[in-house]
Amino acid sequence: MRADHSRGAVLLFVLALVALLASLAVTTIRTAQVEVFAAYGGIYAKQARATAESGLLAAAAVLLPARPADSDNLTQDWAFFPDLANYPGASFLDGHISGRIEDESGKFPVNAMHPGLSNHAAYQAVFLRLLTGEALALPEDRAKALLAALVDWLDADDQPGAGGAEDAAYAAAQFPYHVRNNSLDTLGELLLIQGFSRDLLHGRGDRAGLMSLLTVWGSGLINVNTAPLPVLAALPSGLNAAQAAALARSLDAYRRDPVRQSELASLEWLAKAAGSHNGQWPTTLLATRSLYYAVTLEGRSGAATARLFAVLKRDQPRQSGKPPSCTVLYRELR
């Protein structure tokens, strides 16, 4: 009887030991799985970042064609990046990269409205037409107030213009601050200026926002071959908002036609494409070539993503026979 009891105790002990070892094995496996998943997460994060970085190199390569074109326009490879059949790094990036290249020289140069610069009045007139055009559709009185506040933010004096704002207006804010009295470094600074709202900057619903239409980069000239439709519509004077928007759509179809690419080297294509609906173009503000491009990329690997934003300047060599190059003016990994 005692022998049976001893054997039963031993059996219970063995069963308890097996259960304990099984529990430890399960815990160890779970811990190992967590460590493996964490390791994979780190690998995926690094691969996503490497993909975004390689995408920037590929974008720079696309902006440097083997044979320089006579103009920069929306029929060229950079405008379709990265949805191209062949481009440098395609075998590595295929299915893992998304984003776009935007021509900053086609956007409206907000700092060109600084009163100390030549042609500032012409740029201010274009900006008013941009605000009151079909895309943004602001009332004229609000548009004029925004322009006045922006000019006061840019100019060096402390005398507010009609409807504008200088230090006295901003001193009354909950957190007082001074007017910059200089050019903008980023478009985000517009939120500090009286009257500018997030909806106006970033858009709402289908309505465009100023962030996609303005730039702080570039020489000040606007490339009509790549300008966003609202900017293109704001350039000619002598038209109402509906006429300007219709003209811009017509011009956009013309400039996207690959057959017309050779015509885009000269501003003469504007009159040819517009026909009898042409307005008065501020030709001293316009160009058909570009130097500054913004690159927005998202690299993906597994569940990890890495976002990269950069501004590139395409440098033209002074000596003939040397290829152009790209300089990174700004780069931010998000």
From TrEMBL:
Q: Where is the T2SS protein K first SAM-like domain?
A: 106-201
Q: Which gene encodes it?
A: gspK
Q: Does the keyword Acetylation apply?
A: no
Domain of life here? Bacteria
Q: Which Gene3D superfamilies match?
A: EpsJ-like, GSPII I/J protein-like
* Similarity comment text for this entry: Belongs to the GSP K family.
Sorted alphabetically, which NCBIfam families does this protein's record hold?
T2SS_GspK
Indicate yes or no for the key word Transmembrane: yes
Keywords, ordered alphabetically = Cell inner membrane, Cell membrane, Membrane, Protein transport, Transmembrane, Transmembrane helix, Transport
Q: What is this protein called?
A: General secretion pathway protein K
GO terms (BP aspect): protein secretion
Query: Where is the protein localized?
Result: Cell inner membrane
Q: Taking the first listed entry, what is the main subcellular location of this protein, grouped into a coarse class?
A: membrane
